[in-house]
Automatic annotation (TrEMBL):
<feature type="compositionally biased region" description="Basic and acidic residues">
    <location>
        <begin position="1"/>
        <end position="12"/>
    </location>
</feature>
<protein>
    <submittedName>
        <fullName>Uncharacterized protein</fullName>
    </submittedName>
</protein>
<feature type="region of interest" description="Disordered">
    <location>
        <begin position="1"/>
        <end position="35"/>
    </location>
</feature>
Length: 72
């Protein structure tokens, strides 16, 4: 969820929260996190965008020797 408040009297506010699509094994709730927030600026948006990308990235297992041999 992204929250944006554009106000003429100050710098406004831009913030974001994220939640998992499904619960982890053994849990019946979805986890979530706050992402960067701050003034309504492009810099804040870039921090939020980078936070979303980092949250969505999946860690991959390193290649094993067997996998490398199969590619040859």
């Amino acid at each position: 969820r992204i929250t944006a408040l554009d106000r003429s009297k100050d710098e406004g506010y831009l913030g974001c929260t994220v939640s998992n699509r499904k619960p982890r094994a053994g849990e019946d709730w979805t986890r979530g996190n706050d992402l960067p927030d701050g003034e309504f600026t492009k810099e804040t948006w870039e921090h939020i965008k980078n936070g979303i990308l980092a949250y969505e990235l999946i860690k991959l297992a390193p290649k094993t020797e067997a996998m490398a041999d199969e590619e040859k």
